[in-house]
Amino acid sequence: MNWLQQAVGKEWNITPAGGLTGDAYIAEKNEQRLFLKRNSSPFLAVLSAEGIVPKLVWTKRMENCDVITAQEWLEGRELKPEEMQHYRVAALLRKIHKSSELLHMLMRLGKKPVTSDERFDEITSQLKKNELIDRHEEIRDAIDYLQRLLPVTRNQQKVVCHCDLNHHNVILTDKGQLYLVDWDNAMIADPAMDFGFVLKWYIPQEDWNEWLYRYGATRDSQLTERIHWYLIMDALFYFNWHYERAEINKAYERLADLRKLNEHVSTTILD
């Protein structure tokens, strides 16, 4: 903690902010609060400039080469699951996907667009390595559907995708500002990866068309196929992820989810 104290000054009181990495802290002095993080991506600066995350106050490089960032602390809360249906979430996601500044910055940081073929090859390789394809009919069916739908996912515009759009990462401040935080998994990919996740987990099927309209897209058969391709990919990825960590109950929850997706694709999309 001494390195943090050195960065902000001894008059600040510093406490851990929680989280998985253990690299986030809150600094307090009088009525002031800052959110501190160690070794955040330089991407944070452009996210701040675009108004997508709370304002970046300063960045300091320490003698040990750690980089400390300080963002303004804003009182607020995570969105409730049902609030993800609000048009402001669709508008924020559209702003992100349309931002050339975000795209250029990620590319400057060395990120390259990820194609659906690359993702398909990666997941099949992982599943084969863990000998999971022969064990589960659901996985064999899912891979078959991914292969059959793969052509429609090619040659799509690639944008900056957040890739972890759950309601815990969408913050509503007490002043009504909406922010999307936790950008550690960001990549350049098909935007269907992002909004498909929101649609599946938060938007009733009968409201998909309206939500997509708010986002700025028109639903047709090809878009529906792309959405479900990424939903199947997501389910396979997390099944394998939990399996590798011996989290068997969570892995089988994903397998059950995959089974439902397969049934839907089989009866309504590929029928």
TrEMBL record:
Position of the signal peptide: none
Record-linked SUPFAM superfamilies: Protein kinase-like (PK-like) (SSF56112)
Pfam families (alphabetical): APH
InterPro entries on file: Aminoglycoside_PTrfase, CcrZ_PhaseVar_Mediator, Kinase-like_dom_sf
Domain Aminoglycoside phosphotransferase: start-end pairs: 17-225
Domain of life: Bacteria
Protein name: Phosphotransferase
Species of origin: Lentibacillus juripiscarius
